[in-house]
Amino acid sequence: MAHALAALPALVAAWLCLRGAESLHAADIGLPQSTLFGAAIGNDALALLRYAFLILLTALPLALTTSRRVRTVLLGLCWSALLCAHAALLHYHWSAGVPLGADLFAYSFAEIDTTVAGATAPGFLLAGALVLALIVLWTLLLLIERLGWPRAGRRGVLAALPASVLAFALLPGHFAPAVVRSDAERDFIVNKSAWFADRSAHWLAGAGVNATQAAQASGRAPWQGRDPRYPFLRPERTPDTLGPLFQPGAGTRPKLVFIIVEGLGRTFSGPGARLGSFTPFLDELAGRSLYFENFLAPQGRTFGVLTSVFGSLPFGENGLAALGERIPRHAALPSVLKAQGYATRFYSGSNVEFDNEAQALRAMGVDSIVGERDFGAPYERANEWGYGDRDLMRLVLERERGLGAGPSLTIVQTSGMHNPFTFPGLPAYRARVERRAAELGLGLGLGLAPVYREQRDIFASILYLDDALRMFFEQASSLPGYADTIFVITGDHRLPELPMQTRLERYHVPLIMYSPRLKAPRAIKSVSSQFDLAPSLLAYLANHHGVKTPAQVTWLGAGLDTEPSFRNLHALPLKQTKTELSDFVSGTAYLAQDRLYTIGDGMAVDRMQDDDGALLDKTRAQFASFLRANAQAATAPALTPDGIALAPYGGERTLRGAQLVAEVGAVAVNGVRVRPGTGRLTIEATLTNHAAATSRPVAPLLVISDERGAELGETVLPARVLGAGESASIALQPAAPLAAGVYYVSVIPSHPESGRAAGAGQYHVRIRLD
Questions:
Q1: In degrees, to the nearest 5, what angle opens at C-alpha 522 toward C-alphas 288 and 477?
Q2: Could you tell me which residue, 179 or 323, shows the higher pLDDT?
Q3: How far apart are CA 211 and CA 389, in angstroms?
């Protein structure tokens, strides 16, 4: 160990080579190195201090040889392996957009093999940095050997070991100073090897279920049934919020077509998309549809989307589908409809056994399952994940044309927007990325901004998916029963490979509901989630088309909220990966890794003011109630007793399943716009008090950010009070003139003293100054 301690500077120098490459990569995607690099080096030093005892102990077997030269060679081989492993973790982070944690342990060897085979190869920067790091390591080790570098004595080892053990036990795994403003910046500064080791140790120690982490607090939540054997079971009370928005169907039961899009997020799709919308067709379709702007996917990866959308089911330990044949008995949208004459079908261009999708689909009542093995000529395989989205849509159209017009539930799941982002015709779509960016005014005459240049293939795959959907809908009108079809489009989660400003952005996806039966399009700002889809569609079908629903249900969702203005009447858990369940939303309160935030329109996030901790305790208690029930679902044979009867629509119905931790304030901002024809930028908006009483004092706050999301400045107006139902026009100007370019503005009713949100603001409105 003394030999390893003396040679430790060689490992540190080699490690710095990899951190330098990481810094260059981060700068290319727009992360500010002038403020973050110091924090990154600090986290590397912290990782070395916390894990030095392990590095020294693994060198203990080297004492079996008396040759100092042999010990140096063996030490070099061990540390070379460590550097290669660290480079692999960097490659994963650069490719996936998030550091690798304990999620690795939730996949089978076959699934890991598929993931690795489908990943992109390391680029020149990382490969070159690894070669340089190995050269530095071996050079310094040989110099230390030849120059007779001072040996560390026994006292040095005896001091270093307990100091490192104490640091491991007492110090946090990482620190994030105030300069860290987003999840992407936090992910950059952490040491990837320490991150993986910390989360793996946490998981292997048995803390992965999360329920044991919950305090013994009692918090009422909509999932708490009265029967302790079935904690999610409760009477069906989902209201029919969709019925008023659709034309009567003359007795014909509608067909349902779901399109689950891999990685589709609001960051790059739809109005006000932070990175600009690269889905022009979906934007056009949204203008003819019900468009839910503040919609949430409960999972940060694909593993939970099918059970969330079609079963409104809890997660269990690693996603309920991971249980395979042991998935507990439950009711789901496909099984309920199948029992009443609906045909149920599923299409995918990839391996339907990955994540146990096929088993989960069969357990939920899907009869026909089409996967990659059902493709052949003339379809062309895109990559290890399967066939391209355009070929998938062609196959769906071909098969659906041969089926009747009877009631059916069809599910289409894409996979094209997944690493390695390859598909037929990729070079042509790479060129289109630059044209689309120019249309959106994202280049500013200086070529592509870093995020579009470095992630060109990702944006190309988004454009390719959008074209595939355009082709599908252009031909869908010729399918049997098209006039009576409801199309539902959503993302399984937001692409993690693109930099995220907030943790919540991972879950922020669009929901588009299109149908020839729709009375009129509607843009909906109220919050709903994928948990609400199955309950709402069954309530609509029951109320208008005679479909019966279970009298008792286990839905995590309470139903889609179709209120046009921003609000959230739901409580829901959010599971980022198979092994991490630490996020929870209750009204406008958002608990993220035990930190409390408030959410606003556009899924904007701000730290919540909670001086006495009461709101944090209440949120923890509600989350704990879910965790306890969720842990039980992971081992129970059934979520419902056998033989629950189907019943017609009726009884008391409400979207409110529980008292929420926090709800949107009565004061809200809308109509944010640029005042035309003025020499200086002026932002206008309308401030409205929706309550039946006089408002508290609020100060209109203007926040301006650049096109990368970095805040440039704030302007606040004097506090004012609004009477019941009163509206007022406001005008705000930035403190300093702005150069030509693209900016994002947010107007927020703020607390006059703390500056925190005191109502519903309007966030990330894109403006362009010429």
A1: 25
A2: 323
A3: 39
